[in-house]
Amino acid sequence: MPQPSARPSTEATDIAFKILLGVLVVAVPLANLAWLGGQATAWATGSAPGAPYQPAQALLHPDQLWPALGETSLLLGTRILPATVLLALSASAAVLYQRHKNGSGGRRKRVDGMAKHQDVEPLMAKAITAKARSLRPSLKTAKHLAAKDTGVLLGNLQGTRHEVRMGYEDVAVAIMAPRSGKTTSLAIPSILNAPGPVLLTSNKAAGDAYTATLDARSATGRTWSMDPQQIAHAKRAMWWNPLATAKTLDGAGRLAGHFLAASVDASQQGDFWSKAGSNILSQLFLAAALDERPITDVMQWLAFPADRTPLDILRDHGFTAVAAQLKGTVEGPPETRDGIYETARQYAAALLNSEIAAWVTLQEDVEEFRPQEFVTSTDTLYLLSKDGGGGASALIAACADAVMRAATTQAERAGGRLDPPMLAILDEAANVCKISDLPDLYSHLGSRGIIPITILQSYRQGQKVWGDAGMDALWSASTIKVIGSGIDDPDFADKLSRLIGDHDVETTSTSHSESGKSTSVSMRQERILAADAIRALPKGTALCFATGLRAAMLDLRPWYLEPGADTLSAASASASADITERALAKTDPRQSDFGTAA
């Protein structure tokens, strides 16, 4: 016969304790509120003296404490009023708790294990301001620094009001899917607050960074727009000479490399025809630059390989070895020569378009854009090209490259760094600004005061342009990496998850036996953010990886939620309307000369 347990049931004890605790949590404040309500009612009616402090009596027998009060007064003062106040306080406490749980001001809940304020201190206001003073001689004696002079705003540390900024020696890559905030929260705010010259590449105009910043940047300096494919239908108010830096074999080779990169992917650039076509272009670019000819003459030479003009120019300027190589190609087997020249013609085919060529050849009625002057100004250069623009996007990449190289030269002359720094927003870089050695440039641009932010839609998009090794180099060289929502690559998401790391999670387990219930607590390692959680990042948030710091979760700061957004919105709408008007005007035969400057 089983013996009855000498100990009472642990579960029954727990339930009884919880019931008692719940009664106390409600009864104690309600009793005190009943006493306060009775006192307030007695004072308000003046019909009874104050009662001694007996909250339990006030809750159970209020008529004995205030015998002179009527039944209705007691009901209102010691029952209805206390219950109403208690409910209001409980609701307020619940709201405050929920806000605290999700972050101050209703912000999203901070993810456990992600960087806290102290973990990213070098990116916070105090440290970033001190760094700006050390980097920029013009700020050393300033009593107060504006936030825009200290660094580029990336967002707020999630759940807080602490701003996270990249300094003016950082170089960044942002991988953000379409409509994840890359333009509204990164490109546009960075351009609007840049203290020095700004370079922007883009494949859109209306309703994008171009229209949102055009008016504001016009107040800072001159705005230049290079729009060879008429994305913004901008009047041609500038021309740029791509051969200005092609008077050396290295410079001509870089220019030819932009045409090669714009035409074929990284995986195809090493084959015979691609390399041979690029070599012919570089030799002809060199000849045209040495003789100060327009770049369009190169297309004439490509059309007639037997033309000896480029050979004579190269020899006259002492490039005999280059001339000999060009002669060898021209006099080689016809099948090979024709194949090489046809490849080169395809790469540079955009120069056959007179509207495109006009942006890169001498125009008497418009001003020449000079990169060496631009980098010492506070001007803005908008470089616009369509996706897959071939030779047109090659000119965009070549111009961006020329500006960054001019900035590097100016920084060396100025003691090592540009002050103020130059911001280069390479939006849609994998589509319209394929600079082949951009990963190598990243290793020194930041130290020169040249701050590039390369914006890609995915990691694989970068691999397509620069190859696996090149994209890995770009990723590794970036001191700031911003990852937005919409990451659908499982391998990349898992890589990010591993970079973020693991954290300890407390696990509670309960077991039951004849003697009752026992509880044990243990710790286990768990990913801070699993790959599926990274894929499901909500819009308006981003991950930030900074060199030497823990990964942080950011709340993005779109420009349209900032002070002055109404003015910017109106200016953007006006600029977009102007684009529409110019596009419609092109359908009018009376506007046939619209592409030229007014």
TrEMBL record:
Membrane topology: Multi-pass membrane protein
One Pfam family in the UniProt entry: TraG-D_C
Disordered: annotated segments: 579-598
Top-rank taxon, per record: Bacteria
Amino acid composition bias (Basic and acidic residues), ranges on this chain: 579-591
Domain TraD/TraG TraM recognition site: 421-539
Record key words, sorted: Cell membrane, Membrane, Transmembrane, Transmembrane helix
GO cellular component: plasma membrane
Entry keyword Acyltransferase: no
Key word ATP-binding present: no
Protein localization: Cell membrane
Primary residence: membrane
SUPFAM superfamilies according to UniProt: P-loop containing nucleoside triphosphate hydrolases
Transmembrane feature ranges: 15-35, 80-97
Name of the protein described by the UniProt record: TraD/TraG TraM recognition site domain-containing protein
Organism: Streptomyces silvensis
Native organism taxonomy: Bacteria, Bacillati, Actinomycetota, Actinomycetes, Kitasatosporales
